[in-house]
Amino acid sequence: MGKLRVAVIGAQGRMGTEAVRAVTAAEDLELVAALGRGDRLDALVEAGAQVAVELTHPDAVLENLEFCVRRGIHGVVGTTGWTEERLASLRGWLADSPATGVLIAPNFGIGAVLTMRFAQQAARFFESVEIIESHHPGKADAPSGTAVRTAQLVGAARRAADRGEQPDATMTALDGARGALVDGVPVHSVRLRGLVAHQEVRFGDEGEVLTISHDSMNRSSFMPGVLLGVRRVVETPGLTFGLEHFLDLDD
Ligand SMILES: NC(=O)C1=CN([C@@H]2O[C@H](COP(=O)(O)OP(=O)(O)OC[C@H]3O[C@@H](n4cnc5c(N)ncnc54)[C@H](OP(=O)(O)O)[C@@H]3O)[C@@H](O)[C@H]2O)C=CC1
Ligand SMILES: O=C(O)C1=N[C@H](C(=O)O)C[C@H](O)C1
To answer: How far is the CA of 170 from the centre of ligand 2 (A)?
Structure first.
């Protein structure tokens, strides 16, 4: 079998640079295009790309994906900022191109995927939960896609366990002091020079606190997940949301 033909969109960015390096180094993959801002998407077709790794910006990702899906190019997407409305658009394009697969991974880090899973498992046992995500100051969005996904998973697990709203006796607060509520879970975003990507999920109940934390020390930590996504998406039509679906995690 020939090598899988892979393109990277956002190739000059922090993640894109790493992805270009990782794809180039993989023996079973061939980097056929590396697109930056202003480059024509037609270059993907001309290069015969089978999979596009999308690592740009929330403002650009939809247009890029529509182009790819309509041409049967599979997508591996790290770019954040996904809402139900945006996902609905993507599902519509995929419905018209049923053999095409798109993986959206809020986080490609294996440890981060496990953090989300462990938080989901712990959620029903604790009265209180808060999420603190910390990133480099160049990050375009807040809260992080990982924190939003974690809050959604925790919120759903709390609802399934009939946990009501968590206690919070705050009467007055400065705007933002209690973070942003995502699915009933307060999420706090820190932006600090020197950081890469970090998250703590803090659970509390009478007399005990459980903290689940994860740190990405560099962006090469995301690359095994990117490469796994590239290899698996070509055999997985439709939308896959979350790298956990490509990992053999026990329930
Ligand atoms: N899922 C995961 O595990 C991870 C996801 N991310 C996400 O990936 C995305 C990129 O992050 P990061 O690499 O740090 O960001 P960067 O800003 O470093 O890189 C983004 C790159 O995309 C370019 N770009 C913007 N618009 C377009 C476009 N329309 N076509 C082609 N290129 C474009 C930018 O160009 P210019 O500089 O000119 O704007 C820049 O080079 C973010 O959404 C981030 O949250 C990041 C890390 C891990
Ligand atoms: O922008 C980043 O850097 C990251 N973005 C993703 C997110 O928003 O969760 C993944 C990781 O946290 C790094």
So the answer is: 30
Q: Is the pLDDT of residue 244 over 70?
A: yes
* Binding-site entries for NAD(+): 10-15, 78-80, 105-108
**Helix (H), strand (E) at residue 202:** strand 197-205
Q: How far is CA 113 from CA 59, 106, 140, 146, 229, in A?
A: 25, 9, 21, 9, 13
Assess whether the C-beta atom of 107 lies below 6 angstroms from ligand 2: yes
Which SS3 state, helix, strand or coil, does residue 199 take? strand
Widest distance between CA atoms in the chain:
64
Q: Whose CA is nearest to atom 12 of ligand 2?
A: 197
* The total number of residues written for the chain in this structure: 251
9 lines ligand 1 (CB under 6 A): yes
Asked if this assembly's ipTM is beyond 0.95, the reply is yes
pTM, two decimals, is 0.97
Comparing CA positions, the residue from 203, 98, 240 lying closest to residue 231 is 240
How much is the pLDDT for 248? 82
Cα of 85 from ligand 1 centre, angstroms:
21
